[in-house]
């Protein structure tokens, strides 16, 4: 422990953190964050293929776990750059919103939970998205797969947010074959869309195969020599339900746990899809001038077959298992290939990185939280990113427990009952309720979870509201240093306070009954037109409301989170 703290102290000093001003933005140099210049510029802008998987855990890829068969992904990653210090968000909507906008959740109003199908909410309409910037740079932009960024009005749809074409599902979870999506008992509808219309009659084909087929069709009909292409393939896999075709389950028949077996099959289908896409890139002359990015959107849910081992936590938590992402970059344009990058990177960084790579002007977009990482990825240069705000969720508070581990002086800096997490240099601080913090072993036993679940279950610490870890030394978050290092706790709390002053109000409106598919022809479609009843359903939470109302809302929120957790565990989200 002494050695770990000594090492972390040295690393902190090396970044100058103990002497820096903790109330100012995180900048290496003033020009670094939104710098559109890149070290290597191809003769023509490269074709960009971004493949995003859903709920794929850290231990759910072959080069992390040989039990999972992903030969294509392993080969592409080994020939490119593996991102082994790469972070996403713990659940779907937050990761997708930060990818598309380059901004933290606190700057989009989406810092609380996900956008549910009946909520009149979506990605802020006044923000210029990544595909819109790429369109301005001359790109053809296409999206295939899961959206999950709101659709209550047509202005929220992918085709209104920068994509020339869209084919996929708008909600967070659908049946792989029927494309039915439910938001509670009796609230189910069809969710497969072609552009801005419902794609009726397409059921029966497994979604990963259907989406891959669409991507290959786009690649075959587009002329790569005349216009650069941005392809965003947002796969439903490996999210529940676990509906793997039997042929893909058979190779995993030796796995004792049935859920793990089906989940692994879904990962193998993803691997096959990527193989087919990369084959098409070569066949239709994209490959030589292309950049392929592979990323998960969040950690896995162990109860449904996923695995984040040996990381702590799971999907929906701010432990490493929820936010440390699987990711890599494969491209002939990389200068320094076949390596592992330990440079700190976050999903918001793709926005300025890709716009810069496309020759666009990143400076036109103010307020980005991401950094241009191409020199870091391509050449191995030092990462311009020194910290990551994982999130601040003011609506998720830990009640009835006094702040601990922060000291009286630190308590004045930050309300540690608020759910928040931040990474600064080697250090990571969590406050409030970070989520279930178990270390879940690989699900190799047939009776998992059962008694197997308790082998690595956390004990004690139920009265805590502050945790501190040196992630570089202790990536599995087993040694809480909050009491040993109150000085670091104080500094990171000050960073949270700084970010909180820049936050916009949370937008989390109540469900709108007009969204019910029964009222809209049996499908999930936009249901608000113009300014129709907009204020009635506007769920922006503002500061300064009287305590009585706030207490009532918080009671409802606690009930909501209890139900939300139950739904996650029962595969309904």
Which short descriptors sum up this protein?
alpha/beta, 13 helices, 573 residues, 10-stranded mixed sheet
Percent range of helical residues: 25-40%
Low-confidence runs of at least 5 consecutive residues = 1-23, 27-41, 403-407, 542-555, 560-573
Quick one: overall form? globular
Largest sheet: 10 strands, mixed
Quickly give the structural class. Answer: alpha/beta
Count of beta strands: 20
Beta-strand content bin: 15-25%
What gyration radius follows from the Cα positions, in whole Å?
23 Å
Strand order of the largest sheet: 9-8-5-4-10-1-11-12-2-13
Number of continuous helical runs: 13
Mean pLDDT: 86
Protein name: Arylsulfatase I-like
Cofactor: Ca(2+)
InterPro entries: Alkaline_phosphatase_core_sf (IPR017850), ARSB (IPR047115), Sulfatase_CS (IPR024607), Sulfatase_N (IPR000917)
Family: Belongs to the sulfatase family.
């Amino acid at each position: 422990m002494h050695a770990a703290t000594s090492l972390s102290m040295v690393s902190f000093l090396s970044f100058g953190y103990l002497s820096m001003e903790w109330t100012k933005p995180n900048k290496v140099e003033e020009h670094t964050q939104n710098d559109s210049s890149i070290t290597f510029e191809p003769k023509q802008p490269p074709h960009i293929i971004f493949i995003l998987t859903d709920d794929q855990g850290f231990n759910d890829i072959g080069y992390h776990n040989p039990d999972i068969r992903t030969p294509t992904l392993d080969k592409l990653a080994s020939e490119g750059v593996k991102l082994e210090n790469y972070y996403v968000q713990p659940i779907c909507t937050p990761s997708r919103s930060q990818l598309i906008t380059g901004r933290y959740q606190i700057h989009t109003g989406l810092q609380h939970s996900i956008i549910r199908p009946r909520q009149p909410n979506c990605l802020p309409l006044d923000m210029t998205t990544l595909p819109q910037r790429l369109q301005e740079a001359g790109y053809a932009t296409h999206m295939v797969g899961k959206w999950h960024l709101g659709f209550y009005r047509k202005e929220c749809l992918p085709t209104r947010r920068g994509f020339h074409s869209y084919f996929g599902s708008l909600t967070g979870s659908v049946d792989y074959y029927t494309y039915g999506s439910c938001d509670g008992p009796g609230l189910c509808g069809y969710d497969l869309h072609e552009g801005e219309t419902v794609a009726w009659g397409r059921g029966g084909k497994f979604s990963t195969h259907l989406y891959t087929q669409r991507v290959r069709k786009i690649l075959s009909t587009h002329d790569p020599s005349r216009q650069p292409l941005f392809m965003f393939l947002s796969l439903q896999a490996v999210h529940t339900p676990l509906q793997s075709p039997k042929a893909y389950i058979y190779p995993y028949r030796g796995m004792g746990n049935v859920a793990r077996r089906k989940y692994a099959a879904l990962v193998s289908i993803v691997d096959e899809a990527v193989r087919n896409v990369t084959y098409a890139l070569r066949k239709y002359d994209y490959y030589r001038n292309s950049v392929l990015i592979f990323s998960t959107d969040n950690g896995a849910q162990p109860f449904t077959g996923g695995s984040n081992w040996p990381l702590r936590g799971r999907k929906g938590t701010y432990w490493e298992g929820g936010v440390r992402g699987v990711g890599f970059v494969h491209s002939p344009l990389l200068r320094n290939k076949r390596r592992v990058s330990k440079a700190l990177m976050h999903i918001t960084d793709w926005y300025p990185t890709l716009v810069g790579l496309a020759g666009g002007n990143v400076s036109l977009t103010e307020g980005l939280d991401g950094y241009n990482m191409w020199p870091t990825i391509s050449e191995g240069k030092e990462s311009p990113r020194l910290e990551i705000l994982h999130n601040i969720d003011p609506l998720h508070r830990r009640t009835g427990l006094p702040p601990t581990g922060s000291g009286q002086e630190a308590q004045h800096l930050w309300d540690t009952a608020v759910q928040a997490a931040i990474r600064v240099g080697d250090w990571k601080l969590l406050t409030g309720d970070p989520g279930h913090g178990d270390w879940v072993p690989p699900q190799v036993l047939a009776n998992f979870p059962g008694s197997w679940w308790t082998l690595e279950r956390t004990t004690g610490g139920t009265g805590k509201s502050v945790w501190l870890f040196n992630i570089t030394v202790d990536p599995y978050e087993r040694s809480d240093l909050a009491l040993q290092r109150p000085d670091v706790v104080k500094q990171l709390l000050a960073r949270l306070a700084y970010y909180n002053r820049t936050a916009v109000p949370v937008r989390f409106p109540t469900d709108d009954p007009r969204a019910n598919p029964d009222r809209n022809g049996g499908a999930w479609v936009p249901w608000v037109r113009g300014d129709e009843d907009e204020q009635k359903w506007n769920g922006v939470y503002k500061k300064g409301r009287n305590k009585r109302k706030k207490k009532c809302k918080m009671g409802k929120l606690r009930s909501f989170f209890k139900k939300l957790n139950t739904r996650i565990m029962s595969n309904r989200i």
